[in-house]
Amino acid sequence: MKRLFALSFLCMLPILTFAGNKEIKPKLDLNQCKEILGAAIFNGVLEEVCGFNGGVKESLKEIYEKGQCRYTVPQSTVDTLAKDVLEDSRMRYKAFGEKAFCDANLKGYTDLMD
What we know:
mainly alpha, 75% helix, 0% strand, globular
């Protein structure tokens, strides 16, 4: 799961760049929507737990909305993904402690800032 999020950050950079253009509103596919949703949830955890304040969660939510993901991703998938991301985040936080958890995720977080 840890590698999944690291890889999804790298995969999302082109999507973030493309979606940053306010005039273009691409419809994202299911996998892209799931990646963005998982990243938004995880980055929300980082903002809450680590005090990161770059607005990454809100940026990802905006991309999710503009990509029409609300109509693409079934609610059951949203629920399952949220549960999985939060569980994985808790396990990593407990295993590494707050400082190591936050330090390990700072670069990925800042890479996603506007």
